[in-house]
Design a protein that fits this description.
The chain is an alpha/beta fold. The protein has 28 helices and twelve strands. Helices cover 46% and strands 7% of the residues. The longest helix has 29 residues. One of its GO terms (molecular function) is ligase activity.
């Protein structure tokens, strides 16, 4: 009904577009996708950059608020006093539904949304208070929610009156800077559920355009006010913006919208407003919604490489690219960008090798097109280290592995086996490079000092090669590791610049050493006398090869007692020492190893969590999806043994399902592309049914004997996956 009614208003909307465009001619340039940087207002937390500029070759820093923006706020216009309460409004709604007379409700809606001043008069908690701080928007959120929840249940003429009122507000002549009442009105209008309907998109687009064109200081207020919106409403606004972008890209009915050439600003405006909500989401810990809720899967179907090249070539100039707003791009789409960028680099380097060979009048060799790694199983780590060090120039070529003395053509299986064996050996506790923490079930860098950190560089290069060659590794690093790996995301030109150093908190330490982090947390909340009861100084002790060594957390730290006043500083310095300073050389080598392979502007698009998924895969399992994509050799999917198998597996606990996946693929995680990317195969084993199942992890293959019944299959399968480690039973 709303759609039909709204279509009758198209002529009005078209006039509205013309009028708005005339008003916007003077500020047209402000609406191009230029960089938005949130200023650092006093008492407000720094915000992340809203728009990413590749040309800066590092994450955008936060500018300080210019002096002129710190001038006194313009006076707020006096508001008409509206006294209607939530209860009175709900009573009016009930009476209207019962009697069919909607006059009172119609008057309320048409008056409330007639202008920005009226919106404030209705929804401002106290019309006499300015509410000029970032901490309190002054909006009566409960009343706003009740009014919007009821709106879609009112007659069409009521809903039309709201849209007409919004048009009036957007057509208002602006003289001077926006007041906080204007910002409040924008914040309220963004939550209007009518904008989920495509027939209102013309109005919605102009609302978004005005919000996108606000000053940086105004954006700062909107970001902080938005983080106070309830999770449900916050997600509704985000979903509405994502849907707006999707339907503008791929409209179900193209005739509903103006031609794309006349509204090229629609998507950039929506992306900027979405960036404000992403910034608000990142200010809360834990965030209001998951970062994946900002993904727009529609973008998986556009020319991503064109977007990427536009971003590389034009940065944040007047040429829009979704890569300026990477939080919108899904991890699957980012993987496509990284893979294609990697392929192009591989082809470019291989072509250059070929040209060099021909220019020297030497016979071309196919092996020159690959990174050929030849290793002995008995000297796996040292041989791998030598090969990668010797072939630095070839690291961005396609990887091929050969085990000396073994016949075999690497079609992917040998490469995966090399990764599996090498990672298993390097991360073994006896090797001493990494410490395994049982409480958190993850590895962390050993702080032991040594003369050569080249093996840490090897591990970094291995991770880079895995991402580059689409191999999922069974590595358990904490999230903090990937945050450090992107600090900065592009290797600095100045080799004196520190790398791998990031802001760390007690939460980061909890993910690695929960027991120690708990102790430090107890210190922070201790109500007694810290200095007398703990008798600690700004000094820490570590054991290295049986020798206890001391380190000062600050100059003369051994002489500075920890007190109730300075304990926060002590904890922060302690955490920084453990996660940054004590392992700097180890992690720097690891950082340079990773970036020696993966150096790409595409890394600027990634969050630390997304790097982890690219390296290790996703922890979310969907065995039904695996069943649909499984291939069979010697079996048909309708065979009784196969039916028994899936009945058993789908009934497994999550722990057993992970063990099965680890048993058959070498990792209990799923590639970015989902279960289908595993290329999982079940082959018929012609051995006795007394035998346990066998797995070839290099090929993601399970060899399953034709067990006679479900009970026997379940028993043998559980024994196999629960007791096998790698390539043999313990």
């Amino acid at each position: 009904g709303l759609e039909e009614g709204a279509k009758k208003q198209l002529s009005t909307f078209n006039n509205f577009i013309t009028t708005i465009n005339q008003k916007k001619e003077g500020i047209g340039n402000r609406n191009s996708p230029t960089q938005l940087v949130i200023p650092n207002i006093k008492n407000g937390r720094d915000l992340p950059p809203l728009c990413l500029d590749v040309r800066q070759k590092q994450r955008v820093s936060i500018d300080t608020l210019p002096q002129e923006l710190k001038a006194p706020f313009p006076p707020e216009p006096s508001l008409t006093i509206r006294t209607k309460t939530v209860k009175e409004f709900q009573d009016d709604m009930e009476k209207s539904k019962a009697s069919g007379d909607w006059k009172a409700v119609h008057n309320f809606y048409s008056t409330t949304f007639d202008s920005f001043l009226e919106i404030n008069a209705a929804f401002k908690k106290d019309t006499n208070s300015p509410f000029n701080t970032i901490e309190d928007s002054g909006i009566d959120a409960k009343f706003v929610n009740v009014v919007y929840d009821a709106l879609l249940n009112t007659p069409q003429d009521v809903q039309k009156s709201v849209l007409k009122g919004i048009i009036n507000g957007l057509l208002q002549e602006w003289t001077g800077p926006r007041t906080k009442d204007d910002l409040r009105a924008y914040c309220i209008l963004l939550q209007n559920p009518q904008f989920s309907n495509t027939s209102t998109y013309v109005i919605y687009a102009h609302l978004l355009r005005q919000i996108a064109a606000l000053t940086e200081a105004d954006h700062h207020f909107l970001v902080h006010w938005s983080k106070k919106i309830s999770q449900k409403r916050f997600k509704q606004v985000v979903d509405r913006l994502l849907q707006f972008i999707s339907l503008r890209l791929f409209p179900a009915k193209p005739e509903e919208f103006p031609p794309m050439v006349k509204c090229t600003w629609w998507i950039p405006s929506a992306a900027k407003v979405l960036a404000l909500f992403n910034a608000a989401n990142s200010l809360i810990s834990p965030p209001i919604i998951s970062y994946t809720d900002f993904y727009n899967s529609t973008l998986d179907h556009i020319d991503l490489m064109e977007e990427y090249h536009n971003w590389q070539c034009y940065g944040n100039s007047h040429r829009f690219s979704f890569c300026q707003y990477p939080f919108i791009i899904s991890i699957a789409a980012k993987k496509v960008i990284i893979q294609r960028d990697s392929e192009q680099q591989m082809i470019s380097i291989a072509r250059q090798s070929l040209v060099d060979k021909v220019s020297r009048r030497q016979k071309p060799d196919m092996n020159m097109l690959f990174l050929n790694v030849k290793v002995r199983r008995t000297h796996l780590v040292s041989d791998s280290l030598d090969e990668l060090a010797r072939k630095k120039a070839d690291l961005k070529k396609k990887l091929k592995v050969t085990f000396v003395g073994e016949a075999g053509l690497d079609m992917g299986g040998l490469t995966k086996e090399w990764f599996l064996l090498l990672i298993r050996q390097i991360f073994h506790p006896d090797y001493g490079m990494f410490t395994y923490h049982k409480d958190s079930q993850c590895h962390w860098f050993s702080s032991f000092k040594c003369d050569n950190y080249s093996e840490f560089r090897l591990v970094g290069a291995l991770m880079g090669l895995a991402v580059y060659n689409s191999i999922t590794l069974d590595i358990r690093f904490p999230p903090c590791c990937y945050k450090k790996l992107l600090s900065p995301p592009i290797v600095p030109c100045d080799h004196n610049t520190l790398v791998g150093i990031c802001g760390v908190t007690l939460d980061d330490l909890f993910q690695i050493m929960p027991e120690l982090a708990h102790g430090l947390s107890e210190l922070l909340s201790y109500e007694g006398n810290v200095e007398e009861d703990f008798y600690s100084t700004f000094q820490v002790f570590q054991e290295e090869f049986g020798v206890i060594k001391s380190y000062n957390l600050k100059p003369n730290g051994d002489k500075i007692p920890v007190t109730n006043r300075n304990r926060k500083e002590y904890v922060q310095l302690y955490v920084d020492f453990l996660l940054n300073r004590s392992i700097y050389k180890q992690f720097a080598a690891f950082y340079y190893g990773f970036h020696s392979v993966c150096a790409s502007y595409a890394l600027l698009l990634l969050r630390p969590e997304e790097v982890e998924i690219l390296v290790c895969g996703s922890p979310e399992l969907d065995m039904s999806a695996l069943q649909k994509s499984t291939q069979y050799e010697g079996y048909q999917k309708t065979d009784l043994t196969i039916r028994y198998f899936w009945d058993v597996v789908l009934g497994f606990s999550l722990d057993l399902q992970k063990k099965l996946l680890h048993f058959t693929t070498g990792s209990d995680r799923v590639p970015v592309g989902g279960m289908a990317d595993l290329n999982f195969k079940i082959s018929k084993s012609e051995t006795s049914t007394n035998w346990l199942p066998v797995a070839h992890t290099c090929f993601n293959q399970l060899c399953l004997p034709p067990y006679k019944n479900k009970k026997e299959l379940k028993q043998k399968l559980i024994i196999g996956i629960s007791n096998a480690e790698g390539f043999g039973l313990e």
